[in-house]
Amino acid sequence: MHLSDFIEHPGGRIIRTPLDYWAYVPASLEPPIELNMALIRRLSDADRAVSELAGVARTLPNPHLLIGPFMRQEAVISSKIEGTQASFSDLLYFEAARIKEDQVPDVREVANYVKAMEYGLSRLNDLPMSLRLIKELHSILMDGVRGYRSTPGEFRRSQNWIGPPGCSLSGASYVPPPVNEMKDALSDLECYFHTETDTPPLLRLAMIHYQFESIHPFLDGNGRIGRLLTALQLVAYDLLPQPLLYLSAFFERNRDQYYDLLLDVSRKGAWETWIMFFLHAVEVQSKDAVTRSDRLLDLWQGYRDRLQEARASALLLQLVDYLFEFPAVTNPMATKKLGVTPRSTQLNIEKLIASGILEEITGQKRNRLYVAKEIINIITE
Questions:
Q1: pLDDT for the residue numbered 147
Q2: Closest among 284, 23, 283 to 172, alpha carbons compared
Q3: In the list 19, 156, 225, 312, which could disulfide-bond 316, CB 3.0-4.6 Å?
Q4: 370 belongs to a structural domain
Q5: Minimal CA–CA distance to 293: which of 245, 326, 327, 249?
Q6: How many domains is the chain built from?
């Protein structure tokens, strides 16, 4: 990391370590930010988009409806930013039938992301946003995958750095705070989670996301944990009743800008451009989530209307509802969900195949997997 790349600003400081390299230490939040008209307008647009999505979430006929598919697509895309190659379908196949793991080794990393998200949402009921929760999430994320030797669930005890693949510390584009300074920065960040402030919640989330990434407290998995925290905080701050908003798709489409703007906050104190970018991501992805939710709800209602006209049983309608939580199913999965015999489950599956809602994709006589392709297409297209 070169000292000449950084200018002095109140958002942080450059220090020379005892091992004679430069590192960056972010200042405690909040930084001084001028709420000019452009920023106020961007914040208003983002707030309005989130409120519209919150309205959709509150009117869901089933509070669990749609959450699973949205969460899994986020897991796929957030992991993709870090170079993981596994598709939405790969993840469904892996979770439903434990197949394709050999062909797509990265799929376990994505599945761990889903587990960490589900765990975090349930944990928020009894544990506030905290360093303890962050470490628990990291332990789940890194369980049994690449980087699992990098002390899962523990903050780093050595220096890490960011730069081109294979670069050394001297060639890094960014060096996070050394361990002692990292501990102080994390403690400050935890305090900020619960500090009363007049700063609008979405601005706080933008600041927290940068702060976590600049501290870079783990040896691996920092990007995914940082994006996962944003999704959890949208719920924790009561901006959304259900986790339907995820920003990774926007960050992935604008990956270079995403990384450059985070780095510019450290190098130049360029908070405003980062926050404008973050708020735009919130607005775009909120609108996208509203559109997809509306389409999925229309599809759900269409399925139910069609089946009710054919005098379908309550059991069959229950199975349809389950597909909008998880759009792939095996006989054992459905049997457990419905609480009936495997034979009864299969009869209902066959009815959904006949109606064009499900399709068997393995071509096997045993261990069959059935998917709701119309649901998957709306989520992934």
A1: 62
A2: 23
A3: 312
A4: yes
A5: 245
A6: 2
